[in-house]
Amino acid sequence: xxxxxxEAQHIVLLGGxxxxxxxxxxxxxxxxxxxxxxxxxxxxxGAIVAATVxxxxxxxxxxxxxxxxxxxxQPFIDAEVAKHxxxxxxxxxxxxxxxxxxxxxxxxxxxxAVTTNYVGAVSSGLAVAKQFRxxxxxxxxxxxxxxxxxxxxxxxxxxxxKAGLDAFAQGLGDTLAPLGAQVLVVRPGFVxxxxxxxxxxxxxxxxxDVVAARTVKALRAGKHTVWVPGTLRFVFGIFRHLPRxxxxxxxxx
Amino acid sequence: xxxxxxxxxxxxxxxxxxxxxxxxxxxxDIAAVVAQASSRGALARGLGRSYGDSAQNGGGLLVRLGxxxxxxFLDPDTGVVRVGGGVSLDDLLRVVVPRGWFIPVSPGTRxxxxxxxxxxxxxxxxxxxxxxxxxxxVSLTLLLADGSTMVVGPQQHAEIFWATVGGMGLTGxxxxxxxxxxxxxxxxxxxxxxxxxxxxxxxxxxxxxxEHYRYSVSWIDLIAKGxxxxxxxxxxxxxxxLSDLDARAAGDPLRYGPRQRISxxxxxxxxGVLNHASVALFNEGWFRHYPARRxxxxxxxxxxxxxxxxxxxxxxxxxxxFVQYQFVVPFGEETALRDVIERLSxxxxxxxxxxxxxFGVGNPAPLSFPSPGWTLALDIPARSKGLASLLHDLDRxxxxxxxxxxxxxxxxTTPAAFRRxxxxxxxxxxxxxxxxxxxxxxxxxxxxxxxxDQAIIRSSS
Lengths: 253, 461
Ligand SMILES: Cc1cc2nc3c(=O)[nH]c(=O)nc-3n(C[C@H](O)[C@H](O)[C@H](O)COP(=O)(O)OP(=O)(O)OC[C@H]3O[C@@H](n4cnc5c(N)ncnc54)[C@H](O)[C@@H]3O)c2cc1C
Ligand SMILES: NC(=O)c1ccc[n+]([C@@H]2O[C@H](COP(=O)([O-])OP(=O)(O)OC[C@H]3O[C@@H](n4cnc5c(N)ncnc54)[C@H](OP(=O)(O)O)[C@@H]3O)[C@@H](O)[C@H]2O)c1
Known about the structure:
The complex is a heterodimer of chains A (253) and B (461). Chain A has nine helices and seven strands. Chain A has 253 residues and is α/β, with parallel strands linked by helices. Chain A has a seven-stranded parallel sheet with strand order 3-2-1-4-5-6-7, with helices on both faces. In chain A, helix 7 links the parallel strand 6 and strand 7. The mean pLDDT of chain A is 96. Bound molecules: flavin-adenine dinucleotide and NADP nicotinamide-adenine-dinucleotide phosphate. The site of flavin-adenine dinucleotide (FAD) has 32 residues of chain B, from strand 3, helix 3 and strand 10.
């Protein structure tokens, strides 16, 4: 159960090695927290980060989770509930950015990225929602991206997968709200993490810790959407409405 | 049979709602309804005046008994009343006061059911003299998990009786209770009020004088700091005798008809209207309102249930709600009490008047809250900055001093902290589990604090 302050006892991270995801989990951990489960496609990598999350009061479990394996998502959630009880907070942070040039040369690589970013979010999100319905509460944090808000030609496959994810998460949130559960859509801009390593930072770049702090604050305030940094909400408010001919020519990398 | 309806439910503090099926049932239907509960279980709900998650059951069933004056049978010779578990203290008072009887223990609101009063083993301003609600219960009719009913009391199935008193609905549904009432000559109270400029003066006065009064309670301004820390108003008294009334009042000494004067509309802005500035202003005005010493004759409503004059006042805290924090620390641990008050005052949290009183001896119920010592209760908006960690810190101060927290108010503490305060939990669990091996009864609070064996809940959730 979450307590009166939204402090979760049982936290699950899907994409257990994600830098942003781990930062969010660390920010969520409180004296009320008992168990954190890291759902990772690589158990070895998971074991290393687990040690950085565990403490005297928090036990960390590393469990195999592959976002691209939709059939495995319901069993993953069922096993989790059987072992640790109600899902209080779930953070969905898996994702691949990829290179648009690779996608262009091999459409199957593009389809794989979309399978992880979008299809995997749909099947795992719905499995989580089923349990939220059953237990009558729960919060789900979904890491979307500004890239889905207005898709750029430079990474439109990734952008389109995030656009789909974002729309899915909003719809899920609207379905679950009357049932006492909350879905928070997080839309960061450029974040310095493993995913963007070596890339030239875009304007308004930020860090996983900032994303995490803003996410937890928005959760506690009962919000459904949060932009990080907040300014991006207004920037994209304008971008959204630019005519295609103008948007296409903007030097956004 | 009534239809099931899925709804988000929360406690009086409106903090962490969960959704469940809520159903209003008659006594005749209740066993059949409960038998249909899913693996998320069932729980009785009274009027939802517990502040946290005691009376919610996410994904499961919440059963409301309801009850009216028709479910009240007073034996005028013995003063024992037989009353339905869903009947409110408000309805009960309206029936019994005009006939010269009063409830043995009154909480700060009349909007509490008999079931809720027993399940939380509630206390009033007379705990130091009369103990808690369970002490005055002659017997209970309990609906058990297997669908049967059982009559329990201090003389029959005493173990089950005391597990139900303070048992937070987790032993079964209280269908009916026989409660011994207190005889009164009038419906007024003779009250003495004294004002105190600091905590020492208050504690001394309460320690020395409380035993001369049936009722005693003080309100502390938690915003005051420094040499005004603990400034407070102490109010003590008893039911007025006929001879205490003036001629006009004496003409109709048992007149009783409390009214709700105003109600807070549903549309309060999200952050609420209670912040440090508005609360400080209120507390200041309230403190100045009292002369250093005053004697008066007051109605039952004004003396026992001042907040009932305003309907739905919990809405003033806005959408994010508020938490109530209540603990007891043993006598001799005044340093811990002061430490808590200092930390609250220093935190700048917008706490309304805090209520301080002294508890007398406790009863045999393993989960009953009152035990000899000082008990402090206060409300704070849930959105207050740093509140979550402040309360975890206060938990430690309270537990280190040998104190504990009140389940009816709790909405934030941890299973480990709860266990430190209630060393008899395992004893209670053994009795509970024997009555309900399939874990039918469950609440969000029971899940959060692991009051009911988790292994079984988990495999079925
Ligand atoms: C303004 C205010 C002042 C208060 N003052 C005091 C006070 O001075 N002293 C004090 O002790 N408390 C006080 N309280 C707390 C209140 O008395 C308790 O929380 C009480 O249990 C509420 O009763 P309810 O009918 O609203 O029950 P709910 O809040 O609906 O339920 C509380 C618990 O009782 C159980 N329960 C309810 N009905 C039954 C039943 N028929 N059978 C079995 N279990 C049942 C529920 O399962 C739940 O665990 C106050 C609350 C408010 C809002
Ligand atoms: N960084 C940014 O600028 C930025 C901006 C906006 C949104 N986001 C989004 O934020 C989320 C977290 O990103 P991040 O910055 O923390 O990057 P990250 O550290 O690279 O995290 C992404 C994680 O997803 C995991 N993953 C990829 N495919 C998976 C699969 N099939 N199954 C399970 N896990 C899989 C990766 O696991 P491995 O470790 O095993 O590879 C990796 O740990 C992503 O959804 C990303 O799209 C990032």
